[in-house]
Amino acid sequence: MPDTTDLPLRPPVFHILLALSTAARHGLGIADEVEAASEGAVTLGPGTLYRSLDEMWDGGLVAPASPPSEDADPRRKYYRLTESGRALLEAEVARLERLVDLAKVRVAGERA
Amino acid sequence: MPDTTDLPLRPPVFHILLALSTAARHGLGIADEVEAASEGAVTLGPGTLYRSLDEMWDGGLVAPASPPSEDADPRRKYYRLTESGRALLEAEVARLERLVDLAKVRVAGERA
DNA sequence: ACACATATATCCACCGTAGATATATCTGCT
DNA sequence: AGCAGATATATCTACGGTGGATATATGTGT
Q1: Mean pLDDT (whole number) for A55-75
Q2: For residue B110, which residues of chain A lie inside 8 Å, CB to CB?
Q3: Mean local confidence (pLDDT), A39-43
């Protein structure tokens, strides 16, 4: 089984962590949030979605969460971030931030 | 042949564009620069490197450049960014910047 | 009750990546 | 000059990841 805790994170894993950073969500709700947050640039097919969630579960990045309301659709399985999931997200954000900072200097610096 | 001009860029293509943003470089020089700029987090094997360069050539993102000095190793093939290559890099940087900004708000916002 | 939408889950085919390998040639050492 | 090892480009192959199609169950609306 692949290790989902290595940096750089695979894009789907990063986006799922990001989608869960604000609220517990169920599978398809995560996919919707990822697409919305990325302005349509990133989409998750069901294969990638559920497989990633399985791996993230095994890696201790996500855990089950109770439904947000009493009369929620019982088919939905809600996930939340664990402490290590949030820590991993922070680490990846820090890495990407350094990368973007470097890239911004370079693309702007060419105007001389 | 895959289209290398779609956003999100595949990570190797993004890193190669970034490596060429400051100077014309040859194949292995690009790989070295990518590893250095990412603090060792990103490495490019020869397969990915030369295949990506071929596709980027076909896509008009990179073009041949003259060696930086007269007595350079003649085996080295130097590449430089084209205008569209630089434009594509800027677009991807902008996308990543929005993503990182969003992520920073979310990971910081949880401390309430 | 019936049709359709939603939800999880699995399967498979394709694409992208990384490593091994091949070949050529440059550099340094004796 | 000759030899050994390093460097450089290039290709081939095996593996892993992704995404779409499909299956099944169940909720929702008419």
Answers
A1: 94
A2: 21, 86
A3: 96
What are the CA-CA distances from residue A28 to residues A15, A59, A73, A109, B34 (Å)?
Answer: 13, 21, 12, 42, 36
Residue matched to tokens 């009493």: A70
C9: residue with closest CA to C1': A50
What's the mean pLDDT when you consider all of chain A?
Answer: 94
Collapsing DSSP states into helix, strand and coil, what is residue A63? strand
In the chain, the amino acid numbered A69 is: S
In the DSSP assignment, the letter for residue A14 is H
The model's pTM is 0.94
Query: How many other β-carbons are positioned within 10 Å of the β-carbon of residue A8?
Result: 15
Q: Is the pLDDT of residue A5 over 80?
A: yes
Strands (E), chain B: 25-26, 62-65, 78-81
Helix (H) or strand (E) holding B50: helix B46-58
On the question of pLDDT at A26 being above 80, the answer is yes
